[in-house]
Amino acid sequence: MAIRYYDQALVDKVKSWVKDPNLTILSPSDSTRFFQMRADQLDDKPLKLPLIAISRDSEMEIISTTKKSLSYDAGHLTNDVNDHNRSTAEVSKVLNAIPIKLSYQLDIYTKYFAEADEYVRNFIFNFINYPRINIEIPYNDAKVLHNSTILLESSVSDSSDIPERLISGQFTRMTLRLTIDDAYLFSVPFMDNWKVEEGSIEVLEN
Fold first, then answer.
1. What is the pLDDT of residues 32-62, one digit of tens each?
2. Entry pTM
3. Is there a contact between 185 and 1 (Cβ–Cβ < 8 Å)?
4. Which residues pair with 61 in a beta bridge?
5. How far is it, in rounded angstroms, from Cα 127 to Cα 13?
């Protein structure tokens, strides 16, 4: 599926806000095997903090499950001089889309509460004031940009009380929940163009 493009856009957005070179940011693909991966890399040594882990919910919500013009015959793309897969007189390149909703969890691990508190404060301001992410649709050299909006959920939780095998001693974990409810699955197929042949049209009278 194409949800990995939203994953990467969210990770890139968070990385652009973080200036601490010692902070590690794990993407959703990394976070799915968070502890195993970190154990392999560090030979079972304790994790180094601070660390941010971004995970995506296992369920993706399909907002519309019925066939519509948006999913079957939506916008026809114009040709670009650098596009090697262009529309022709016989076929057109079409951008189809199905709306979906994605949900994420952003976990901030720090040694002390004050440090986590500062990260949370900065992320809240950034997600509220700069929520846009850009997705480039790559299929058939489309290279169309789609804008989506990250929505910060209202609850921020201190989830420090959960046990973590690879983190020894005390630590603080703060959790933010994020959603992208204007995401899409995209398809860029070629469709045959209809032609009207020259000739006479006979109109029959009743």
1. 656 555 555 555 555 678 889 999 998 999 9
2. 0.77
3. yes
4. 101
5. 9
Residues 6+ apart with CB under 8 A from 184: 97, 98, 99, 100, 146
User: What is the three-class DSSP state of 167?
Assistant: coil
Domains of the chain by start residue, with CATH: 3-65+100-184 (3.30.70)
User: How far apart are the C-alpha atoms of 158 and 34, rounded to whole Å?
Assistant: 20
* Residue 44 in tokens: 């079972």
Q: Which pLDDT tens digit goes with each residue over 69-96?
A: 777 666 666 655 455 555 454 567 788 8
**Strand residue runs (E) in the chain:** 24-26, 51-56, 61-62, 75-76, 91-110, 132-137, 144-149, 151-158, 172-187, 190-192
Q: Are 75 and 186 in contact (CB under 8 A)?
A: no
Residue 158, CA distances (Å) to 117, 164, 171, 178 in order: 10, 15, 11, 16
Place of tokens 């262009």: 86
* Contact yes or no for 136/121 (Cβ under 8 A): no
